[in-house]
Amino acid sequence: MHVIHGHKHVLQEHRGASVAIGNFDGVHRGHRALIREAKTEARAKRVPSAVMVFEPHPREFFHPNEVQFRLTTLKRKLAIFEKLGLDLVFVEPFDAELAALTAEAFIERVLVAGLGASHVVIGYDFYFGHKRGGNPELMVRAGEELGFGVTVMPPMAEDGEVFSSTAVRLRLAQGDVKSVTRMLGEPWRVSGRIIGGAKRGTSMGFPTANLPMPKGTTLGHGIYAVRARLDGVAHDAAAYLGTRPTFDDGQPVLEVFLFDFNGDIYGREIEIEFVDFIRGDRRFRSVEELVAQMEADIAQAKAVLSD
């Protein structure tokens, strides 16, 4: 898979692709439907399959002082795109120049002159160009006039709920990671470098790996059954996200207890997959009561992960 940064740097061999366009935050099942359609058209036309994403996310560009909760980093998106078998990824810098383009100019300069797109796949709710002046109907008309195909994908839903990045964030805020797995097609995950902590877990017999959460994360507080990946090896684990009300610390942190693991992991990169929610956060009357509950939480997490 080739990653091309910007429409002004597209080699001739990468022109003519069938391109799915969007932010793809979370790369949920609705996004994956767009990607499948782009790949189908690519096979039919014998051209490369591709996606175009915008970096940074347009919300971050227009609201730089607001903390945005991104479900997936660009690095994670690229890993998913490669797993889905795409040939190309166009990472389009979202800057003042791009934001100023009218919808018509975006089509003519970016999609036609820049990418030479043979087919474009967009969602039913895709708006683009200066002040979101472009919509799917405009894209279809432009394709007819300028000679590229357009597919507008309808909403994808299950049990009456439309798959969307907003819906995923809402479920995460509720701690409903099982529903998130269903929406994404795989567990939601975070990754980062393990940092040191107060070592209270160690003193209670549960040494934890502490991980700073991505900025703006609104994951529900509590205990989760998770899988932790170190150097590509998965380890069953239980994770706590919260403010440690028993100790009145106040700052949210993700603490991960790996089962049957004794290695030194401080400073190493770790990836956490959220499998199921065990219980919400609460204050305990004593450390002894907390330890007893932790033992019960771990037993429940082990049962969940063994299924």
TrEMBL record:
UniProt GO BP: FAD biosynthetic process; FMN biosynthetic process; riboflavin biosynthetic process
Catalyzed reaction equations: riboflavin + ATP = FMN + ADP + H(+); FMN + ATP + H(+) = FAD + diphosphate
Domain Riboflavin kinase, first and last residues per copy: 183-306
Gene3D superfamilies (UniProt xref): HUPs, Riboflavin kinase-like
Protein's pathway: Cofactor biosynthesis; FMN biosynthesis; FMN from riboflavin (ATP route): step 1/1; Cofactor biosynthesis; FAD biosynthesis; FAD from FMN: step 1/1
InterPro entries: FAD_synthase, Riboflavin_kinase, Riboflavin_kinase_bac, Riboflavin_kinase_bac/euk, Riboflavin_kinase_dom_sf, Rossmann-like_a/b/a_fold
Main enzyme class: transferase
UniProt keyword annotation of Transferase present: yes
Keyword Transport: no
UniProt cross-references to Pfam families, sorted A to Z: FAD_syn, Flavokinase
TM ranges: none
GO molecular function per UniProt: ATP binding; FMN adenylyltransferase activity; riboflavin kinase activity
Key words of the record: ATP-binding, FAD, Flavoprotein, FMN, Kinase, Multifunctional enzyme, Nucleotide-binding, Nucleotidyltransferase, Transferase
EC number, as in UniProt: 2.7.1.26, 2.7.7.2
Family membership: Belongs to the ribF family.
Summary of the function given for this chain in its UniProt record: Catalyzes the phosphorylation of riboflavin to FMN followed by the adenylation of FMN to FAD.
Name of this protein: Riboflavin biosynthesis protein
Source organism per UniProt: Hyphomicrobium denitrificans 1NES1
Lineage, opening ranks: Bacteria, Pseudomonadati, Pseudomonadota, Alphaproteobacteria, Hyphomicrobiales
